Amino acid sequence: MTMLLSIQSLCKTFGGLEVVRDLSFDVPDGTATALIGPNGAGKTTVFNLISGVYPVTSGSIRMCGVDIVDLPSRHRIGRGIARSFQNIRLIPRLSVIDNLLIGQHVKLKRPLDVLRPFRFARDHEWIRAAKAELSAFGLSQYDDEPVGLLPYGVRKRVDLIRATLSSPSLLMLDEPAAGLNASETRELHRHLDILRERGTTLLIIEHDMHFIRSICEQIVVLNFGCKIAEGPFDQVRTDQQVSEAYLGTERAT
Ligand SMILES: Nc1ncnc2c1ncn2[C@@H]1O[C@H](COP(=O)(O)OP(=O)(O)OP(=O)(O)O)[C@@H](O)[C@H]1O
């Protein structure tokens, strides 16, 4: 099995605080992996290290065999990495299409190109791509709606489309199902199924264990920045350390 992402002996300290400790795990190409653990375990920090928001203290992060720890964050997008954040990062008063166009600025060769009035070129390739993607996910009716007026579940999926317009090979999702009701969670599930059919590899932080169980083949469990278990859901679920640290709490499935 080919490894898309390979993390080896990753460490991160903030001042004297060790937040990620000697963490190693692989994400096989074309699969979905969950990163779970109690609040403060270091999950979002791992995402920030992979996407380049923070420099690593030590260790390696390989994408398709190439160490990317020294690459600036925007160049990691070029390596096929995209992510969503816990809080939706869209501009509420702008339309869905305009938000998706803003998300495309990472493709610009020169920073000042962001001032080009591509919004007025109605057949610009970025507009066509954004519309095609909204249509593929059944969201065309919202093209010109201000994002702030949309139901929360639709906003989350627009945010997902913003992340996937760069055609990433690895999509990292930070608590995608948080705050969604049951039908919105089902829509999100369908959305992710389509991405998986396209071959996108997923790495997901999530507290909803039913959601994780139905999507992810592999689970990596963190506690205090260390990996305490790894494997298929049913194996991890019965692990004593995992029960004590996490699944045995009020969030048990
Ligand atoms: N920039 C930072 N500076 C200092 N400490 C930080 C920073 N970012 C995170 N931390 C600390 O690192 C630890 C892990 O935080 P992190 O957000 O990665 O955990 P998490 O597992 O994602 O938690 P949650 O499930 O609540 O989102 C926490 O103790 C947090 O306070």
TrEMBL record:
GO cellular component, alphabetical, reads: plasma membrane
Pfam families from the UniProt entry: ABC_tran, BCA_ABC_TP_C
User: From the UniProt record, which GO molecular function terms apply?
Assistant: ATP binding; ATP hydrolysis activity; L-isoleucine transmembrane transporter activity; L-phenylalanine transmembrane transporter activity; L-valine transmembrane transporter activity
Enumerate the Gene Ontology biological process terms: D-alanine transmembrane transport; L-alanine transport; L-isoleucine import across plasma membrane; L-valine import across plasma membrane
Task: List each copy of the ABC transporter domain by range.
Answer: 5-249
- Record's keyword terms, sorted: ATP-binding, Nucleotide-binding, Transport
UniProt xrefs under SUPFAM superfamilies: P-loop containing nucleoside triphosphate hydrolases (SSF52540)
Q: Which residues cross the membrane?
A: none
InterPro entries in the record, alphabetically? AAA+_ATPase, ABC_AA/LPS_Transport, ABC_transporter-like_ATP-bd, BCA_ABC_TP_C, P-loop_NTPase
Q: What does this protein do?
A: Involved in beta-(1-->2)glucan export. Transmembrane domains (TMD) form a pore in the inner membrane and the ATP-binding domain (NBD) is responsible for energy generation.
Write down what this protein is called.
Answer: Branched-chain amino acid transport system ATP-binding protein
List the lineage, top down.
Bacteria, Pseudomonadati, Pseudomonadota, Alphaproteobacteria, Hyphomicrobiales
